Each structure stands twice: as C-alpha cells, then as structure tokens.
Amino acid sequence: MDLKQLNAFVAVAELRSFSAAAKAIGLSQPSLSRQIKQLETDMNVALVDRYNRPLQLTEAGQFFYDKVSSVLIELNNITTMTQRLSTPNTALNIGFVPSVLYGHLPDIIATLKQQNPDIAVNLKDISSYQQIEALKSGEIDIGFGRFAHQDAWIQQILLRHERYLVALPKAHPLANIKKQRLIDLADNRLILYHQTHLPVSTTTANSQDEPVTEPLLHLFAQYGITPLMTTEVSDLQVALGLVAAGEGITLVPASLKTVRTEQISYQRLIHENATSPIYLHTLKDFIHPHTPNLLSAIYQVYEQKGITYRQQHFE
C-alpha cells in the first residue's frame, strides 16, 4: 500500500468513475485500474464493485474511504505546513467576517501599519467556518471570526464581546423604544443570516430536543422564545436590505449601527447575554512572526476606544 494507490482509490470513490478519476489525478485509465487492483490485492479486500453502474464501493470500500480520506487530508495539511515553515511568508494574510469590518478592524490595520511600516497586509473577506480550512491551506495566517471552533490544528483567543442591537424598519411600532425585550420581538419575522452555526455540545446532543444552533434562534431559545416567522438569507447585508424594505427585523452586532440609518432604527436589547463574540484564531504549530504586532495593535485600539477586554496571547 502506498500514497499513490490511496489517492487513486479516493479519486475513484469520490468521482464514481475510473475514467473521471484517472483524468483528475493525471493517470491513464489502465494505470489507475492497476493501482486500485494492487491496493485490493495488498489488503486482500474488494473495495470497488465493478459490476454495478454507476460504479459503487463495496461495504468494506466505503468504510475504508471514510477513514482514509480524512487521513489524506491530514497528511496534506502536514505537508503544506511543513513547506510553509521552510519558506515563511513575510506578508500577513488576514481573514475576517464582514461584520468585523464595520467595527474597529480598519483602525487596527492602520495602527499595525503605522507601527510596522515595512509590513505587508492582505485582507480577505471569508466566513468563520471557511477560515479554518484557509488557515490550514495557508490562504490566511490569522482570522477574525464570530464563532468558537473545536479543531486540533487551531488555537483561538476571545478578543471581546459585542452587544447585539435590534434592527427594525423606521416605520415599525417598536422603532423608537430604547430598550428592547426579545419576548416583544417574537411576533415579527426574524431574518437569519449566519452561514456558520453554533457547535453542538455533548450534553445538548444527548438531550431529547433537537439543539438550536442558528445563533439568533439560539439567543431567543435561551429565554424559551421561538420567533413566529423566520426568513433565511445569504449574508448580513441582504438581511439589512430586507429590514430596510420593511420585510422583517434582525439582530446585528453594535458596530453595524451606522448602516442604512435612513431606513433602519437600531435599538439596544436589555438582555446582558445578548452579545456576539469576536475571536482571533490561528494555527497551533505555525504562528506568523507578525501576530504579536497585530495583537498589540488590537489592544491599543481597544484602549483608545474604551473597550472592555482581557488581554491574551497565543501560546
């Protein structure tokens, strides 16, 4: 059994075609067939059912694919990180979720560049979930996200909590109420925009009720409230566009309170736990040399803005 055989098998398993798999990995079809046959001979197990159309894996083949595909992904991550260690990138590639851009990220980057004139910074708009794979592949070196992640390759620190505000159409009956309660919002159409959901804890997963992992619905559920109507959209900007059009309400981090203010009223929730966290995450085994400089800039801006935080550092 060797790496070429495993890659050939995974290609066949995923594409369900010898010809398509051969083309994908740059082999002739006879060469690919020999690789798979040799793998089956070495293991003394039939992995591919060649008599069905479309091609299928045997039960043993499906089990083998489920296990070996994750191993190959891990091996690819290790290879990529080893290459990065040998030729480190001098530029700092930063991933961020769009909502962070409306907060203090521009000030942080300006402070970072002012204190480190020679640093090159590249910014990439990328969701919290996608940032994890982007860190592993080397697409980004560090990421600002809104969700905690459990991943053996990743370490993260909590920068701060940002209060949620209610975004309501200016003509809404509650638009001028300064302190809002979730129970008073339950009869409205709630517009959901998060593409990443909360992780399911072991305790929650074992409960009889299906866990609520959509972040806004989870917040309502903490108070035993279920919104009467919901609409799911692709991103935060679309959600605010629908609010501006009078199609519903939503909850957004406080840093977005200057967006579409002609059509939208932003009001504070009375609930102390109605917050959206901001995390900074990077790889455990590969911390970019400019990461301490970035953290220093973050905390300096927080000091200037009077933002409550607890200073942390990556290990």
Automatic annotation (TrEMBL):
Residues 1-58 form the HTH lysR-type domain. It comes from the Bacteria. Pfam families: HTH_1, LysR_substrate. Gene3D superfamilies: Periplasmic binding protein-like II (3.40.190.10), Winged helix-like DNA-binding domain superfamily/Winged helix DNA-binding domain (1.10.10.10). InterPro entries: LysR_HTH_N, LysR_subst-bd, WH-like_DNA-bd_sf, WH_DNA-bd_sf. Keywords: DNA-binding, Transcription, Transcription regulation. Belongs to the LysR transcriptional regulatory family. This is LysR family transcriptional regulator.
